[in-house]
Structure formats: C-alpha cells, structure tokens
C-alpha cells in the first residue's frame, strides 16, 4: 500500500514517513531552530541582572458600628486585601516615594513626577501572603542597595498615607463644624445687638411673648391631633378655635411688640444652635486626636547579595528545545502547504497519465554536498556554469552499469513497449514541461543516447529557438545552422544535421565520447538562428515537410520544445507529433501548473503518452520500490568499487 506524504489528512503516516519529511525539509528545520536559539541567546545575553528585596506590611480593617450595619444590608464581593495591595503599587503612592527618595524634585512639573513613578511601577509587585493579612512588597532593580531602600520607603509611605486617609473623615467633620460655628456665632451676635437696639429705641412691654408661646404650643398640639383624628373631631376643632383667638389677639397688639418677639426668638434659636455646635466641635476634636491605624510594617527589606532570575544555562537549553520543536512544526506545516506532487501515485492519479520513467538526481563527478552556509546562501550560478553542469550530466560521463544509465534504459523500454507497442520506426516524440528548469533538455539528450545505444537511429530536434540548450549540452561550437535555417529555406536538412563526428570534435571530450558505444546512431538538429517569434515557422508547412523527411531518415525523432505555459510553441508542435511526454521535476511545480500544461496539450490535439519524473533525490519522498532498489544496482551489475564510493559520496 502506497502512502501520500503531502496529503497527510488522507493517509496514515508511519515513522518512515515522518523521517522522510524531516530529511526533505531539513533546511526549514535548521533555519527555524537556529533563528529561535539565537533569539533566545541574544535575549538572555542582553538581560540586565536584577536584584530583588522584599518588605511586608500588615493591614487590619477597623470597622465602625455604622459600617458593620451597612455590610449586613449590602454584601460586597471585593477582597479588601487585594484592594490594598493594588493601592500600594498605585501612582499616588509611588509619586510620593520618588519624591521622598530624591529621585525627582517636588518642584518639577507633575508630568516628570508621574513619569518617574511609572518607571518605578514596572519594578514593583505586591502579593497577599496566603491565609494572612500581610501584603509582601517585592522590588527588582539593577542595583542591590536601591531595591531595599525603595521597598522600605514604599512600606513607610503606604502606612503614613493609610493613617492620613483613615483620619481624613474626622478632620473633614471638624473643619465643617468650625465653619458652621463661626457662621452661627456671627448670626447670634447680630441678633443680640438687634434686640438691644430695639429695647433702647422702642421700649417694648413684652406682652406678646406669652401669647406667641401659647400659639406655638397650640399649633404643635393641633398638628399632633390631626395625626389621630379628622378635622371635624371636637378636640381638633377646639384647638383650631383657640389658635384663631390668639392670632386675633396678636393682631390687636402694637407692631413693636411683635417685632420684639421675632427678634427675641431668633436670638434664642441662634444661641441654642451655638451651644450644640460647641459640643459637637469638642467631640470632633477628640475623634480626630484618636489616630486610627489599620496598617503597620511587619518586615523591613534587607540588601540582597545575589541577582535573581539569571539561569542562563536553562535559558539556552529551553532555546534549543523550543527551536527544535518549532523547526519540526514548521517542517510539517511547509510540507502540508506544499502544492507540488511528490509521489508517483500522485502524478498518475492527478494527471490520469502513466509514469514512464523515474530519473534519479544526476550528481556530477566531483560534486560535493552543500554545507549549511551554501544551503541558506546559495552561490549565484552563471549561465556558463549552469550549462557546464548540464553537460556533465550526460550519460557519457557515467558508467554503463550505474543507476543513472539503468534509469534511462527503463525509460527507453517503457517508451518502446508502452507508448509505441514496439512499433517505434519513424516515430516523432515531443518532450515538454510546464515551466523552465524541469530538466527536460537533459532528459531528452540522455534518452537519445540510450535509444542510440539500443540500435535505433535517433535524432534530437531542438525546437526551442528562444533559449536553445541542446547544442550546449553536447558541447557543439554553435547552434547554426539549425532548425530555423532549414525552415526558412536557407539551408538543406543534410547540411544542418550534426553527426557523431561533430560531437567528437566538440567539448565533450574525445575519450569520453568514444567509450560510449552506439553514439554513431545519434544525430542532432540544433535550433539554428535565434528568432523573436518562431511560432510561425513551427506551425508552417515547412515544419510538416521537415518532420516527414526526418521520419524517413531516422527510427526515432525526439523534439525538445519550450515550456508549455511559457510560450505557444509546444502547443503548436504537439498535434504534429506521434505523442507528447511531460517531464516533471518532482517537488518543483504546483499540481495545478502541471495539470494546466497537460490540459493545454490535450486541447491542442496532442496525445500525452506519459510523464517522466525527474530529479528524484533522498530528500524527495518516493513511495515505490524502484527508488530503493536503485541503490543496489551498482553491486548487482558489477559497478566498480571506486564508482560505488564516488556515487555514495
């Protein structure tokens, strides 16, 4: 049973699956792990050592009878100890602390005092000691001496402010009574002076005073009777009659007698209020003198001898562990988000096209594995270096018993049997890819060599007139004359074809070419002169005539076309061929891109015969037995020990 690594939600993974994903995404794991570790390392290295000192205060709530009665009626869910802990670390307390310590001058603007208090607030924490009424004050600062000094000052300021706050109510009451007493005293003096002046000028007899007293008593009695009886009740009516008689008597008295009564009564009221306020003032002064202390200092802070929270070794260990965890998580996330196709079952199932060959990664002779720096900062490769490496990937540089050679023999066999059913004479096969750098040109070149070794007269037609590659792979001196020259009628086909002799005279190396048998069956038609718009030539009748001529001359014609999605050349050529084969570099392109390339070829009338999986490496997970068996081909076919060692490197 085959498993799909990329579609993890559809299949159950085993340990080998996870290991393959780790190998494939090792660059992601290393990058994320190193980034995490160095972040933790620099953070730890840049941390300033902190010293911590602690003081503590006890808070006991003093309740009055009124407050206790209020609590019985209205229940409160607040924890008073937590409230006091928050008050200790509040800005009003810390502003007084920074002034007391001399951190800022009290005469500076209030904004500077608040800024200093905010800076201190970040270094202060308060905590209620469990099952006690004690609040611990912790201060962490870079200087050991400052921590103890600040912790003690905060405790002292809090206790002092608590006392002032608790006695604030008594002070407010005393000040209010004093203000009221001064006002009443002033009114009493004025009323007494008014009475004295009235006596001197008017000489009242005082006859109205008993009547006023009697009237006041009757009005009070009448008010009380109305609470028990109706207005028609005889007792009520009798009281009303007496009130009416007294008021009639008062109307007959001189006005000076009534004025004297009014002034005298006002004096008596002010005198009574004055005496009552005097008594209340004495009580308020006594209450204010009794200082109510709810808070007291329990422990004073001492100067610490060593910093706290500086376990660098633990931080480094956690950085490594966290880096590995994040690296592995990132690797699986990247794997899950990868839209490319990574297994043969994926390719065949998605494209509904058989896989004709699996080409391993072509490691050139002397190539070394990339180190860590080269993986993250790859060397910029010039076009000359790139084509030189492609040239070294030709089969002429590999042993005939190597896994690479065998992979192309399998591809050759599958094309002969599966695609053309052994009727391969005079067939034209187009090789295309969805995008650039899929390995299409080197695949065509090596397949042509394998076909030639199999005794088939083979010709490679480089139909990529925009970015020709075939002539550089085979080390030919130039691309002209070639396909474009033949189609334009300036050169005959016989003069444009390159033979075994031209290859010998090229840059491949005389000895390397001679050691590969069958190359005399291989011919090459290069792209010819570069054209800005070769599509017209590729779709012309001359192209049809050329293909017909090549069919008559050769057993097999392999056409290397530009990428399908880049330009229209491949779509124009494909219907003229006996079949088209897609070359897919595993893990490079998204599945939608590969599917679109096949759709375009099919819609143009082409017959897509299959797909070749290219660039299979140990980092690319492949779920079929061929790849693993491929590792042992060297021993099975008698590969030399030196070649085995070189390949294993």
Entry keywords:
29 helices, 4-stranded antiparallel β-sheet, single chain, alpha/beta, 649 residues
Structural overview:
The protein has helices at residues 15-24, 26-46, 65-73, 80-88, 91-100, 110-121, 144-166, 168-202, 208-226, 234-252, 255-289, 312-337, 344-351, 372-376, 383-392, 403-419, 440-453, 470-473, 483-487, 493-496, 500-504, 510-514, 535-538, 541-553, 569-573, 591-603, 625-630, 633-636, 641-648, and strands at 51-59, 124-128, 134-141, 295-299, 355-360, 427-432, 458-462, 522-525, 556-560, 579-585, 608-616. With 649 residues, it is α/β, with parallel strands linked by helices. The strands form two sheets. It has a seven-stranded parallel β-sheet, sandwiched between helices. A four-stranded antiparallel β-sheet has the order 2-3-1-4, with helices on one face. Strand 10 (579-585), helix 26 and strand 11 (608-616) form a beta-alpha-beta unit. The longest helix has 35 residues, at 168-202. Mean pLDDT is 78; it is low at 1-11, 65-69 and 618-644.
What is the gist of this entry?
The chain contains 29 helices and 11 strands. The chain is an alpha/beta fold.
Beginning-to-end CA distance, first to last residue: 31 Å
Mean pLDDT: 78
Instruction: Tell me the structural class.
Output: alpha/beta
Count of helical stretches: 29
Strand order in the largest sheet = 5-11-10-6-9-7-8
Largest sheet: 7 strands, parallel
Overall geometry comes to: elongated
- The helix content is 55-70%
Low-confidence stretches: 1-11, 65-69, 618-644
Query: Nearest-angstrom radius of gyration?
Result: 53 Å
Count of individual beta strands: 11
Work out the strand percent: 5-15%
């Amino acid at each position: 049973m085959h498993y799909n690594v990329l579609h993890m939600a559809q299949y159950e993974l085993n340990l080998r699956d996870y290991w393959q994903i780790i190998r494939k995404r090792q660059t992601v794991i290393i990058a994320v792990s190193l980034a995490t570790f160095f972040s933790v390392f620099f953070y730890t290295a840049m941390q300033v050592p902190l010293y911590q000192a602690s003081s503590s205060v006890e808070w006991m709530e003093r309740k009055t009878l009124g407050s206790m009665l209020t609590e019985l009626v209205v229940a409160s869910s607040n924890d008073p100890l937590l409230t006091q802990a928050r008050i200790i670390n509040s800005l009003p307390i810390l502003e007084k602390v920074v002034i007391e310590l001399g951190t800022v001058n009290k005469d500076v603007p209030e904004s500077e005092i608040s800024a200093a208090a905010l800076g201190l607030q970040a270094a202060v924490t308060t905590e209620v000691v469990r099952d006690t009424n004690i609040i611990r004050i912790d201060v962490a600062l870079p200087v050991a001496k400052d921590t103890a000094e600040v912790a003690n000052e905060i405790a002292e300021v809090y206790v002092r402010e608590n006392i002032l706050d608790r006695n604030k109510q008594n002070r407010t009451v005393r000040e209010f009574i004093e203000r009221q007493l001064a006002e009443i005293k002033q009114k009493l003096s004025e009323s007494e002076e008014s009475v004295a002046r009235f006596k001197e000028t008017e000489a009242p007899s005082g006859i109205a005073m008993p009547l006023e007293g009697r009237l006041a008593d009757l009005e009070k009695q009448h008010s009380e009777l109305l609470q028990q009886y109706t207005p028609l009740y005889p007792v009520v009516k009798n009281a009303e009659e007496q009130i009416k008689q007294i008021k009639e008597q008062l109307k007959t008295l001189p006005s000076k007698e009534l004025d004297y009564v009014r002034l005298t009564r006002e004096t008596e009221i002010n005198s009574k209020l004055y005496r009552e306020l005097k008594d209340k003032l004495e009580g308020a002064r006594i209450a204010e003198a009794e200082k109510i202390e709810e808070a007291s200092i329990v422990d004073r802070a001492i100067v610490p001898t060593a910093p706290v929270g500086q376990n660098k070794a633990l931080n480094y260990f956690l950085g490594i562990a966290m880096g590995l965890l994040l690296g592995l998580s990132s690797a699986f996330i990247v794997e899950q988000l990868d839209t490319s196709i990574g297994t043969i079952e994926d390719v065949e199932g998605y494209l509904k096209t058989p896989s004709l060959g699996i080409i391993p990664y072509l490691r050139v002779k002397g190539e070394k594995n990339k180190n860590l720096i080269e993986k993250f900062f790859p060397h910029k490769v010039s076009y000359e270096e790139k084509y030189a490496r492609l040239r070294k990937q030709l089969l002429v540089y590999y042993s005939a018993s190597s896994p690479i050679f065998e992979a192309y023999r399998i591809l050759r066999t599958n094309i002969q049997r599966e695609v053309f059913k052994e009727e391969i004479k005079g067939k034209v096969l187009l090789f295309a890819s969805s995008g650039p750098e899929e390995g299409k040109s080197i695949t065509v070149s090596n397949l042509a060599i394998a076909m030639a070794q199999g005794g088939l007269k083979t010709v490679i037609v480089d139909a990529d007139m925009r970015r020709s590659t075939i002539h550089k792979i085979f080390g030919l001196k130039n691309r002209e004359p070639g396909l474009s020259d033949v189609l334009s009628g300036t050169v005959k086909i016989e003069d444009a074809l390159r033979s075994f002799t031209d290859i010998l005279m090229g840059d491949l190396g005389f000895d390397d070419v001679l050691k590969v048998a069958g190359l005399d069956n291989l011919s090459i038609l290069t792209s010819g002169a570069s054209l800005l718009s070769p599509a017209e030539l590729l779709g012309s009748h001359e192209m049809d005539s050329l293909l017909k001529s090549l069919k008559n001359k050769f057993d097999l014609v392999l056409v290397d076309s530009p990428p399908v999605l880049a330009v229209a050349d491949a779509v124009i050529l494909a219907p003229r061929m006996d079949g088209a084969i897609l070359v897919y570099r595993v893990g490079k392109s998204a599945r939608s891109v590969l599917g679109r390339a096949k759709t375009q070829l099919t819609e143009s009338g082409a017959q897509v015969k299959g797909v070749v999986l290219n660039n299979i490496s140990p980092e690319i997970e492949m779920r079929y037995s061929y790849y693993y068996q491929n590792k042992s081909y060297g021993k099975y076919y008698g590969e030399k020990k030196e070649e085995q060692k070189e390949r294993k490197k």
